[in-house]
Amino acid sequence: MLTIDHLQASYGKVQTLWDISFEVPRGEIVALVGANGAGKTTTLKVLSGLLKPQAGKITLDGEHLEGCSPPDIVRRGIVHVPEGRGLFPDMTVFDNLLMGAYGTPATGRRDRMDRVFAIFPRARERRQQLAGTLSGGEQQMVAIGRGLMADPKLLMLDEPSLGLAPLMVAEVFRVIKEINALGVTVLLVEQNTQHALALASRAYVLEAGRVVLSGSGQELLTNDDVRKAYLGL
Question: What is the pTM of this model?
């Protein structure tokens, strides 16, 4: 579905991605894991068009995406839920969700909203509440729901469990599994390595802007280097 070949990117003169290659097959959950500064968030920014690559190829179903604008990439089916949620705090939950459908055809929006409310019943209950008054976990659910309102083929999630209580972390990962079961492919960036690898069909370990390990989630969970470096075992 999504193929990344020899991707390079930088912030000004500081290069952060060096020759990154990986694949996201249709229907799977693929995880990118690694320490802070490994290049995980930068990779998502490049894939969503927020940062232009210096070199390399990005193809979605055979169509090249290098040079496409963020709106074009969303229209092609890639939706990015950023770290930090990025909600509009002075807008209601309902209006935040509706913003996710901006630029999409009006036909089907109600069905998508109903689907989001089915996945997130709390969002339905609080649809007229200002987003900024929600708890961190509730805000994360609204951010994911807003991404779903764009009807993505591929949903990219950046650190969805960051800063959440353990019970809410478990709920976030349950929801990701449910979304994937509905047919949405997921690219997950996550520092909670154990949860991410347990959930993922396949995973890639990034270090200093390079892919240093890859395999199924279960294979990496039992890899001695991964266990020592990221699981504390």
Answer: 0.93
